[in-house]
Batch of 4 targets.
Target 1
Amino acid sequence: MLIFSIMDILVQWCVVCFDDGIQLVPKSWIAGTKCFWPTFTSNKRYEKAVKHCEEPDDSWPLYNMRILGTYDSYEIGKRKLKIAEDQSDLSTDDYEKSKKRRSLKKKK
């Protein structure tokens, strides 16, 4: 039981699959089977928030998602995200179908 607790502490980033794509997010953005999604309009701002594991804002919407993999390193998470664009399960080498990276929504 202690081993799982230590592993949970080390995990900081998750590659997740949304209905409309995949993305790397901090573990703190995940709430059960849902994930907070920022209302940022620039990719640069999004990348900074992910890299520094910023806490989610209560105003961010929640979306259904599925965790594909968990990582204790941002760099490893980014590498796995690239792999996940071609595979659905990061723990295997089986090819399922190509996925696209989730993008930020443009403000109207």
Target 2
Amino acid sequence: MTYGSKCPEPFMSESLRKIVIVETLFICIVSFFAQLAMLRATKRLSGWKSDFSFTIMIFMSAVAIQLYFGEIISHIRFALAVDTDLIDKILGAAFMTSFLTDVLLSITMIFHRVAYTFYPFAAPRVLNSTVLKTYLCMIGLFHLAMLGILISPLTGFIFCPKSLARFIEDDGVATPGLRW
């Protein structure tokens, strides 16, 4: 199968391309290590009651680590100016999945904070550890399902290493759902 047949042509000069490579790789690497530090710092504060926000932050950091790891690989492929291949479909799917999962985790944190702020006595009973663990498992399943769907022929969110672009390539059955 041919990947990236609709990849846009590079739109920058070679000198600008080198600057973009250095800057974006630097930002991705620093962000990757910042998320590792965040993961380590929030681990001590996490729990299943009012401190569940820190548990959510651990999951947000894990998703961000996946995102930045993929971004580092993507930017290395951009630096090498390689042709588009299957790995770019995986990198595109991982990027979009990380984004969607992070949005879901952010909304979860908002609802959790609202519940504990407005219902401080009822929230610990309703949002017990079993409920919260089940909910996080459901988010994990959502993450894996989205990754599988975005890699499958149903949709096609792809990274283009020659132009550092991401776009929806395939016109699969589920592609209109991505074009929200």
Target 3
Amino acid sequence: MDNAFFEYLSLKNKTVGAIINRTEYNNTHFIIYTEGKICDSSQGGIFEYFPNNIMYAILDNAGNLLVFNNIDDYHSYISLKNLNIANLHINIKDLFKIKQANKLARDSGCL
């Protein structure tokens, strides 16, 4: 989590979360956390970005998205609940721009 930040993503009037993790080799991993289903599309990830909210997110054992605004609360919760964090890693080279993402989302019925 050291090199990660949290973004809100809006799909079908649901809020899901994703962490964009930039590794030491400058590869980008998209780690999606969601409660419920997100739109699956052959175009890949279709998201609207709101990059100014810095938070820490986990998907708990029941599949619920939880976010914390500081790292201490995040670690305390994980330790208290003894959680095994589940996540989905998608390797991407370039992030969609907002305009492209919204157009693809509308065309595919995701928004």
Target 4
Amino acid sequence: MSKDKLQDSQSAQQNGKRPIPLETLPEPSTDHDDLIAVEAEVVPSGPKRSSNRWLRVGAVGILLAVGLGGITFFRRQTVVPQSKSPTVEQNLPTILPVETVTVERVSSYSISQSYTGIVEAQRTSELSFEQSGLLLSLAAKEGDQVAQNAVIGRLDTRQLQAQRQGLIAQKQQAQATLTELQNGPRQETIAATRALLTQEQARLRELQAGPRVENIDAARSRVRDLEEQLELARLQTQRRRDLYAEGAISREQF
């Protein structure tokens, strides 16, 4: 028995453990000579035991923290969807339409590139109205495409329309005057001149019948003057008519 104690003590010292003394039991009173062996429990030393205890406490704390975190995460996952009142459509998977492309062998490919800049026309021209006035509407703005002869703006033409009507009236009056001149002098003027000529001719005949020669000569001279005045009036009228037709004189001068 002492030998076994010595071996256990040596093995405990080699393992860094404190040996525990063992007590031997008294010999049994029975007839058998068997010995009852008592197992020796090796108890770790003080510092080693305390470090193991702290490790166990730390492991338990970590397990508790992980468990609490998992419970909190699970509760959030279950509570938040209920507050949003999910529908059946929200739980369904989202289906995205796709376009299929057939793979083909090609010998070349093109690369498109985009750049940032300002597009300027090669040729520009400034447009304006022939006359100034009040702008009523503008059908196009900068950058719009317009076709040829398209109306892009309108002016207030009420004043121009009034001027146009006045010019039309003047044209009609000038046309009437031209027609009258083309038809010859007025019949009233010709009739008055003829009446005056007839009166003078009658006076001439009367004087020719009388005895006074000077009166006859005076009457003849007066008749010749009237005839010359009539011819001069005809020539002047014809000349003015020709000048007006050529545009050399105005209607007032005519």
